[in-house]
Amino acid sequence: MDFFAEQARVRSSSRVLVLLFIAAVLAMVIAVDMLVLLVFGHPRHFGRVPAPHIFPLLTISTVAVLGVITGCAWYRISSLSEGGKAVAEDVGGQPVLPDTQDPQLRQLRNVIEEVAIASGTPVPDIYLLPNEPGINAFAAGYSASDAAICVTQGCLDHLTRDELQGVIAHEFSHVLNGDMRLNIRLMGLLFGIMALSVIGRQIAWTGGNSYSFSRDDDDNGGKLSGYFLLGIALIVIGSIGHFFGRLIQAAVARSREELADASAVQFTRQTRGIAGALKKIAVLEEGSRLQTANRHEVAHMMFGDVDDFNAWFATHPPLLTRIHTLEPWFREHELAALEAQMRESPPAENKEASTKESADHFLPPLDWPGQVGAAVLAAQSSVAPKVAEPKDVAEPKDKVLQHVATLQQGIPAHLTDAARQPESALALALALAMSAHDELQLKQKRLIANAFGDDVQSTVSKLAGDKAAMPSASRMPLVSLAFPALKQLPQGRLHTLLETLDAVVSIDPLVSLDDYCLVRLLRMHLLEAMKPNRAPIDGQKKLPACRDSVTLVCAVVATYGSNDDAAARRAWLLAMNQAFPGMTVNWQTLPLDWQTPFDRALDDLDDLMHAAKEILIQSLLSAIRADGVVTSTEAELLRVICASLHCAVPAQAEIST
């Protein structure tokens, strides 16, 4: 499967379906206009309207209907302006606390943290639907910076760690594909269309009650019965719009769910997890159904169907089709054995015996984008994960556990604890940005004390001393782990933190690459999290329009990934020739003060269209692999670039030294 071609097809189909949604709204407007013409043009209902006044009347009705739908949609979308958190809480989600001692919730947090860090995204807010026995989950938000992942209690009760990881990987693909923004807009459009039916019910109820008191008065009764008929007609028209809205909602969801299943395999490097979750949905009595009243509003963003929809309204492909796509060797009779096993044993016994141990797993290192996976963009090699033979299913697991064990042994537990709470996470972020040189540290401590006080400065100093015992590759995972706690800080304190981080790093005129990467990621993600609905959307620029920015970014990657100028020039030429084939380019040595221009270049490149970003990432990979190895410095720099472009980290960047 060519993942980028598949993404382009899905995005194109989604745009067409949104246009169809708009067409459905226009059809409702026409229906209302015809209704108004019929009611107001009939002599027994309000009197016949003179011909010259018909057009203004229809104009008013058109504007009124569009205003109602647009206003209600805008209101609904505005109510979700806080992003994923607002959607999760709207359906009854309860936050999973960072310091939870519940083994199931700890495992959930660890799985989500693993996939988030491996895919180069900040750890999202985590929510649980505690009263939902079905197996389901969803991701919501405007971007990765404000994303929330919500799972049902059924996921925790029935799924093994591998299966839970498969479900979470599926949801992360929605985060990285940009599906979440469209999902929130669809929620608003559906709400706008449903509002017309609500107004119709109110008019019908008022008209019907008034008519019952006025039926002896033929004239007045006739007029009031017109109100009643108008209300009934609006209900019918609203229902028609709602019907077509559901059809479009289902079609949008189905087209994206196919890609999300395949992307989950790319995340986890095995099909057993997500296929196992789908099999359990197939045999579980509750399946993936939800009980919450507004379940249909979020149906298009869920892992499985929230209700027993017919084929027209189903938001997901049939379960057996999804399973067969992942495991072509699957036979339907296998479900009977699984059903018998789940019926005879309590949920806890159906899970892997190693679940308790798995709950204690920690985070993979930042230099491991290829093991838990790197999402859809990880498939830039245009090669799909192998699923034709069962022997390919769990091949990378041993390597995964080795990385997990290594990182768990190398990170002090109290640093992990510090990342869980807002104030200690603030101190940790500052500590990770501090220089290793004593003279610079003194100046940095004074800046921190001036900004936050002596108590915070003392905590930062202690944490800065402790980080020396931690592997350097663990800095960015800790920052990602601390992100949910940092988002809880008041906006004023967050702005002060970002200003202080910039000042702490800029004390040294030659900013280290590690410090630059840390501050760049924190600034970008925290600023987006402050105003989720203003997160960047897909750009429209083509690569030649950003040639200078491409040139600088490739030069930075080539310089920091090479041992000498000759190697850097060779790597840079490889990247530029792939980005701009046949174009003459001249190598220029990277200036010492490259950081500020580099920031501007990344912002410029974020406006590229999707296909241009693909070419750019492949060009950068050419520079990185020019010497045959991928260093931790190159992997970290590429991670920052991909995050700035709102892309996932490609699997080909897996560290080799």
UniProtKB/TrEMBL annotation:
Region (Disordered): 341-360
Residue stretches of biased makeup (Basic and acidic residues): 349-360
Domain of life, per lineage: Bacteria
Needed co-factor(s): Zn(2+)
The keyword Cytoplasm appears for this protein: no
A GO molecular-function descriptor: metallopeptidase activity
Keywords (A to Z) from UniProt: Cell membrane, Hydrolase, Membrane, Metal-binding, Metalloprotease, Protease, Transmembrane, Transmembrane helix, Zinc
TM stretches of this protein: 16-41, 53-75, 186-204, 224-244
Domain Peptidase M48: start-end pairs: 106-328
Pfam families with a match to the protein in the record: Peptidase_M48
PANTHER family listed in its UniProt record: PROTEASE HTPX, PROTEASE HTPX HOMOLOG
Name of the featured protein: M48 family metalloprotease
Source species of the chain: Dyella humi
